[in-house]
Amino acid sequence: MPAPPPVEPARERLIAAMTDALRRRGLHGIGLTELLRAAQAPKGVLYHHFPGGKTELAVAAIDQVVERMTAGLDKLLAGTPDPLLALRRWIAGATARLQETGFEAGCPLATVALESGPEDRALREALARAFGRVRERIAQALVGAGLPAERAQGLAALIVAAYEGGLLQSRVAHSAEPIQRATDTLLALLSADPSCAPFQEPSP
Question: How far apart are alpha carbons 3 and 25 in whole angstroms?
Fold first, then answer.
């Protein structure tokens, strides 16, 4: 008989449970007992790995989410010469994942950002790092395609805003139309912008 699949370590189960909670319900939408049940981990294990409790676990989940986001983006950018086409595919992948969950599990970065308050300093710092890393990855790709650094940074900020805002609107509407419309319009504008002349988006 084949060996059973290895059991995921408790730390990874905790991060996975928190990530899923952040995607679906936000940090304050799930209680600690429910979170521990989903991770199949006792409270002592949580505080062993994350002495700061639920907040520290949420920061670890955010850090892991952005690692996956940037890794996926890097892979697309490496395999797609035109950065606009790579970005279209990146956004399409996020849209597909949202659809697969019945529009229930969106991007956890925006979900947590909307519910965080001034007292959530650690969370806000983690979110700022996360958004900053994604913007920087996109800006680097645009600079590599020939855009000036300042212009690339501004466009990267606009693209991330459209990505996060589009996902939020699609989740609320239970439809992919808002993010698809935003993506089509934004990338068409960029393709037509003379300052983006170093690249032109091919047909998807």
Answer: 35
Task: Over range 187-194, report the average pLDDT.
Answer: 82
Q: Which pLDDT band, with edges at 50, 70 and 90, does 192 fall under?
A: confident
Measured distance CA(105)–CA(146) in Å, rounded: 36
Cα distances (angstroms) measured from residue 32 to each of 16, 43, 106, 119, 189: 14, 9, 21, 19, 45
Cα-based distances in Å from 175 to 67, 129, 168, 172: 27, 29, 11, 8
Look at the pTM and tell me if it is higher than 0.70.
Answer: yes
Ordered alpha helix ranges (H), the chain: 10-24, 32-39, 43-49, 54-79, 83-100, 108-115, 121-144, 149-173, 177-192
- What are the angstrom distances between the C-alpha of 18 and each of 12, 37, 43, 64, 76? 10, 11, 14, 11, 27
The conformation of residue 102, written as its DSSP 8-state character, comes to: T
Rounded to 5 degrees, φ, ψ at 180 are -65, -40
d(CA 180, CA 96): 11
Which of 6-10, 24-28, 72-76 is the least confident region?
A: 6-10
